Fold this protein.
Amino acid sequence: CAGPTVQLAAPSEPININLNVKIEHEIYVKVDRQLDDVFDESSGLF
Amino acid sequence: SDGQWQLDGTLAPIYFRAGNPLEQTLASWPALLSLSSGQLNAELQAGDSGKGLRARLSARLSGAKGIYDRTAFSGLTTPVQVSLQGDRFSAVLADLQMTELDAGIPAGPLAADLAYRGALDQPLAGTLDAQRLTLALLGGRVSLTPATLDMAQPEQRAELVLQGLELGRLFEVYPTEGLSGGGTLDGRLPVLLRDGQLLVDQGAVAARAPGGVLRYQSDKLQRLAASNPSMRELAGALEEFHYTVLSSQVELAEGGDLTLALRLQGSNPDFQQGRQVNLNINLQENIPALLASLQLSGKVSDIIEQRVQQYLLKKRIEQP
Amino acid sequence: LSLNEAMSALPAAKEAGLLGEQSNGYLGVVRASGNAAEVAQQINAARKAEYQKVARDNGISLNDVELIAGQKAIDRTPRGQYIKLNGQWRQK
């Protein structure tokens, strides 16, 4: 059978990753903000 | 005679496709509910045997379709028993069935047994007895733990139990490019109903053993990974992440702000010889913005696009 | 009636219940009197131009912009002014 095989052990130390994710729904949020100006008192249109 | 009378009658069936006479006649018809099809058959017994008015309406709503606020529903079939004695009334919807409802994410069927008792002078301040409320969702089920809610109180507490929700189905609906994978989720969400808003306080969701696989590839992440070592680790791990632990705390606050405190443990066999990775993600999402953008973003199918006209036509108005 | 004149007449027309907001993002005539209809026509034309620009900027259909605008117009209508829902004018 084959000679001793060298098993590369996974590094014992785990990786710790901390992440903050804020989901912005670009299209809707942008459109919503742009329309805020139209429906502002001073726009004359509302 | 001494004022006693009795009336028995069968009302003419109403076909909502021809218009909704109830909307004009019933002052308390909810402003945001419109029925586009369905049939209502009803029989009325009323009388006064000397002790005041007693009335009983036994009706059957079948095949109703329509929109409530921004949720479309169809295939609503339910018997309705309404009884009135003096100024007390009760409405029982036993064995309610609804085939589909869609608030941006398709769900259904829904089944429920509901009973509401109140007084005519304060119709909305009665008690709602929800013995059964289950909804099929994302390959699994959400059910309300049986509860009696006192609607006179400023807020009501209840609990939703999630069983067997499939992560794969969630990724199909949720518009994140490059994210796929699987796993079965169960959970428990303590809910708070406060002036029409549904809030979740310290909900918990977790994937069933043995876990599953998550795959995430995005050019945004690749660009970040090129210049940032921890991003490179993240990208490497998420390419083919075999997780054993996936759990999250769930908070849904005023205005629909959802916060998930996600905890993942697992490894990618092709990344650093399968080195263990512990991933903690604090994810913030706004549900109304999500549902609105689901309806507007390019990933939305034509059917939902066509529904945008119906959905957004009805918007909640403050009661004057 | 110039756009500017229409703009200055708009608040009074709304306050008097002549004009109200609709869910399609445009003004509707609740009660035709005086130049209410003409005010609505001028303002709606200006609104449409704004909506077309927003639709072009974000690559979505004019109709989608109109629907979000309608939702916003109805939300922001003060109590006592008129809005149209389910085809009927109602006082908010």
